[in-house]
Amino acid sequence: MNFRTLDLNLLRVFDAVMAEGSLTRAARVLSMTQPAVSHALRRLHEAVGEPLFVRAATGMKPTPLGQALWPQVHTALTGLRQALAPEAYDPARDAVVFRLTMADSIAAQLLRPLVAAVERTSALADFRVVPLLTRDPRGELERNEVDLAVGFFPAVTAALSAHGADSPLRHARLFDTEWVCAMRRGHPLSGALTLDAFCAAHHALVSFSGRAYGLVDEALAGIGRQRRIVLTVNQFYTASHLAARSDLLTVLPAGFVEDTGLADSLVVEPLPVPMGRVQVAMLWHVRHDGDPAHRWLREQMASVAKR
How many beta carbons lie within 10 A of that of residue 62, not counting itself? Predict the structure, then answer.
């Protein structure tokens, strides 16, 4: 490819199609016709020497080359746009809707202070929170279904840290907590939770997928042990209520116990199996990196988490 003769407007088209995943939506964003966008992509494919997209049932799917090029192209275009025409965002003047995904335990800890902070500043920000259905929300972020994912994503954050700027996603650590075992007050294992007793007990597991195997089970397998999962549920609230009203044990984030409203009915014990810290992080797509409104959202979330 001869970079000196490359029409840089083609990179704007490439960036828009990557961000929107659709020729129709990209054309709307660019104020172009769909045929014009298709023609621009053909020219870019010819200049690069191979396709950057293939058609899929859900729209335009990037090829490995397209996926590899986008972080650098998007970052460069965003920096140029900000330098030539910096955008301003006034939370008290500009109405915006943010789509968030998080588990109910995280929502219970962060949303109340987040809304309070927004109301104190008279910001015109609205939030639409949807349930977290997976430990790997990269698909939702890449498809632009949500603006921000908040939770414990150890495998994802490790992968993002390894790939650095080459990844289309970004992440930031919010706060740390730890896993604890919760049981009803008066439970026979209260004050006597040995590893053998823990493995012999009946458990309620919070599983977004319904699979009866979680992080605790991975840790147990590492020392050659296993436990009995009697029930899986998809909410920490549900698990905490079950534990408070039965002999089931459940594992909860320590910081969430106070927000269950059941602190007087639950006893919390340290886990008898070694578990690492719970590092809660927020994830977002690189398309939002330079967006002033999204930057404001991340600043608010980080401030709330810090307090």
Answer: 21
Phi, psi of 2 (to 5 degrees): -95, 105
| 3-84 CATH fold | Arc Repressor Mutant, subunit A (1.10.10)
Distance CA 204, CA 195 (A): 17
Overall size of the chain counted in residues: 307
* CA separation for the pair 28, 16 (Å, rounded): 10
Domains 96-176+279-306 and 179-276 share a fold: yes
Q: What is the mean pLDDT of each run of 10 residues along the chain (307 residues)?
A: 76 90 90 92 90 88 90 81 72 91 95 93 93 91 92 92 82 95 96 96 95 95 96 96 97 92 94 91 91 93 91
Residue range 96-176+279-306 forms a domain whose CATH class is: alpha beta
The CATH T-level fold of domain 179-276 is: D-Maltodextrin-Binding Protein; domain 2 (3.40.190)
With b for 16 or more beta-carbon neighbours within 10 A and e for fewer, the 186-204 pattern comes to ebebeeebeeeebeebebb
139's CB contacts (< 8 A; 6+ apart) are none
- Is the separation of the CB atoms in 15 and 70 below 8 Å? yes
Q: Rounded to an integer, what distance in angstroms lies between the CA atom of residue 240 and that of residue 246? A: 10
